[in-house]
Amino acid sequence: MSGKQDAAGSGQTWVVRDPEVLGEVIRAGRDARGLTQAELADAAGLHRSYLSNLERGVATDQTERLFRVLRRLGLEVRIEVPATDEADGS
């Protein structure tokens, strides 16, 4: 299931409802900044295999709990991934 929605002139806006879409968003953000998984994992203080699992949408106890709370509250998470030329590289 894709949660991607185009936002005019500002890259992409994603509606994140599950771990799979969260993974797509993380990968798109990393790709937009030209980072490898190893570079992003190092910068975030994570193991590369954990980041790989996130990007593949592997559900963990933490992500399942997060989405369960959001669904119960009727909340929706939207994440905007800037266009490549707008990425600040941080």
Explain briefly what this protein structure is.
The protein is of the alpha+beta class. The chain is flat, with a radius of gyration of 13 Å.
Describe the structure.
With 90 residues, this protein is an alpha+beta fold. It has one domain (4-84): lambda repressor-like DNA-binding domains (434 Repressor (Amino-terminal Domain)). Helices cover 48% and strands 14% of the residues. The chain has a 3-stranded antiparallel β-sheet with strand order 1-2-3, with helices on one face. Strand 1 and strand 2 (12-16) form a beta hairpin. It is flat.
Main traits of this protein?
4 helices; three-stranded antiparallel sheet; single chain; 434 Repressor (Amino-terminal Domain); alpha+beta; 48% helix; 14% strand; 90 residues
Task: Please give the structural blueprint.
Blueprint: E1 4-6, E2 12-16, H1 19-32, H2 37-44, H3 48-55, H4 61-73, E3 77-81
Antiparallel strand pairs: 1-2, 2-3
Helix pairs in contact: 2-3
Q: Say what the CATH topology is.
A: 434 Repressor (Amino-terminal Domain)
Low-confidence blocks of residues: none
CATH superfamily: lambda repressor-like DNA-binding domains
Q: Beta-sheet strand percentage?
A: 5-15%
Count of the domains: 1
Q: Helical segment tally?
A: 4
CATH level-two architecture: Orthogonal Bundle
